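Example 3.
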Amino acid sequence: MDIVIGVDIGGTKTKIGLVDKNGKCLVQSFFRTREFPDLDDYLDKIKTTSDELLQSLEVKPNILGCGIGAPNASSKNGTIENASNLVWKGSVPILEKLKERMNMPMRIMNDASAAALGEMLFGGAKTMQDFIVITLGTGFGAGIVTNGQLVDGYDGFAGELGHVDMTIGDGRLTGLGVKGGLEAYVSATGLKRTILYMQSKYMVESRFRDVAYNDLHGEDITKAAEEGDEIALKAFDYTANIMGLALANFTAFTQPEAFILMGGLTNSGKWILEPLEKYFNEYLLEVYKGKVNIMLSSMEGKTAAICGAAALIWEKQD
Amino acid sequence: MDIVIGVDIGGTKTKIGLVDKNGKCLVQSFFRTREFPDLDDYLDKIKTTSDELLQSLEVKPNILGCGIGAPNASSKNGTIENASNLVWKGSVPILEKLKERMNMPMRIMNDASAAALGEMLFGGAKTMQDFIVITLGTGFGAGIVTNGQLVDGYDGFAGELGHVDMTIGDGRLTGLGVKGGLEAYVSATGLKRTILYMQSKYMVESRFRDVAYNDLHGEDITKAAEEGDEIALKAFDYTANIMGLALANFTAFTQPEAFILMGGLTNSGKWILEPLEKYFNEYLLEVYKGKVNIMLSSMEGKTAAICGAAALIWEKQD
């Protein structure tokens, strides 16, 4: 049985799974990224976790390679560069160092670009030539496909839309210090920041008056919205407004057929989606109206990123 | 001799030329677009102008086809739709109607996309796979190339970046009524609007205190800057600031190797380019620094748009 090892390097978790040719993740595992601040230890951990997964299969698999999705990864250089959500600083030659441990075909790509490949091979974008995957986790990532091809950019760093400045003037700082950067507003983290902002702006009561930033969790914000908590509702509306404008702007760039959303923020369901649809259509240029879908990824949340990473190797097979 | 008819439909002028396989415009002519408010009269005028040009050649040419660049043109539909700078409203089936008059292979495309094709075939982008052409005339247009291919979008309307909203909140309205739209600031027209804005904001003396909006011309603004007119200098700085931010944002989208600028505003030379370079590098994400060039089109200004339009047909020849 042919399989591909998919590795999703996230700011919080590193997920590893074995993916078959239909995009099914047969087995998976994860560990906390921050527990391995030393790069060599971290890469050893990827190796041992992969080995454990491989040994757990009943049939001995034929390993085609290893695909890796990571923030700020350059597919062309095989590196992760200045990722604000990871502890290793500067330019990390991750592909080269992992190859020393695992001798097999290997590719690395920006996590959102990998997710876009996954959607194209295994998910909701099988029939699409022009679409954008948006990942809404710790940060805001984008994987852009035009003319049926992933947009990599001159140097492999296309799609860093989380650091697009949405404000002429003064805005929140992203992890990379970009003023007004999109992901400072539109991401799971951005929503938490907005919960604080709304409490600073309005004097209304809220369950969050008793919760510190580090104790804030996305699911609690969703629950609060369901209970009618005004701060939560205002926070979703504010997030959706900026996101609606951003997606309308992105439409003017490559005119995708659809935006496919995934990641923690999408777990808030209608609380983010309904105002998002409203603002998006309000901002969308007339010529695009009715032509651009916003949809949730149909891939299973827990394995979508792993399957996206594995798609880097699967797309090269015939 | 093989030639292609190139037609550039602009808000002010319609330019027509005959272009050989090296991108040389052999003869050209123009007329004022607004003198033909009736679409049929306008298309007749394109036909007669083309015929005159063809007859002016000493050798009888072999006509391969006609390429058309126009604002808000859809390559997929063969239409111009809701172009704010043209008098014909709604969806104009220009390709179909022109074919009734000129029976030959014909393609239409957004003018900036056509310009990008022209740069790829004949100009400074011959060796590039990822670049963006920016046209700075009455409006702000963008022709985006990734993976060596023009980005058309799902429906042929990619690259409408002039209507990207650069402000969360309140901004100038574009011709399409988009609040804060980029071309309301960054275009030959935007610069004129900024000359008024600066006079409203500052009380300093300026030669423009005696000039009404309709009498403002780009070359006078350049001349004023050369003479140290503070309003002109502030206007260039303000324009360059917004443009620098926009180009830095666009870089995060497709990571082009270069931005190639053309159109009226570029005639202001260093007055726009020097502050643009400064702001662009200030806003650019660290990971892109030193990797993205801003350059002027090397194509001859008067015929660049015609050659771009002709490139629509030339790119299909082998």
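Chain B touches chain A through 47 residues (CB under 8 Å). Residues 230-254 of chain B form the longest helix (25 residues).
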